[in-house]
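INFO batch 0412 | record 1 of 1 | parsing
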Amino acid sequence: MAIRFGASALGLVAKMPSGPGSISDLLILRIARSVPAGIPTFLLTSETSAGEIIGHHKRTHTSTIQIVDKPEQGAYEAIRLALPAIKIVQVVHVIDECSIDEAIRISQHVDALLLDSGNPILLIKELGGTGRVHNWKISREIIEQSKVPVFLAGGLTLENIKRAVNEVHPFGVDLCSGVRTNGKLDPKKLEAFMTAVLSS
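INFO prediction complete | emitting tokens
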């Protein structure tokens, strides 16, 4: 459905400490195998050790790994060594201006960044799907300094997507809760959102 409405990639959410949309690794594998050629598939993993991230990918076989929490030191290098053909996207949860330095430092080790509105320091970590907008001025600064593509996430909806694109100028946008009704993907919301994105 997402591809039919114009999505250029699919994010497949694995087990998370909180947030909507998670599915089993087996279903992620089935979807990744069935997606048409040319549509990247992103495994959203909350694992933080290199070994667990690599193992998670080997169970799902997506084209991209999206790490939603802070990985252990040396993880990026270990993942590249084990999975040289797989792209790495690191999520940076934009909390304050310290997020700028964090993002620029991380950008030297990954293929892309994704700026979201979670809070990984809570007792029950928020690693995405919060429905909250963060400070787009900080996101814009990160995009202006980053040497890799930067995606924008966090509270994006039909009502604010055009402003987000115009103010932040991201490489792409990522969303989850903004196109859901009662926890499920809503075809009408998704179609309207994609129409707005493609006309921005």
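INFO post-check: The helical segments are 25-34, 50-60, 75-82, 98-107, 136-145, 161-168, 187-198.
INFO record closed
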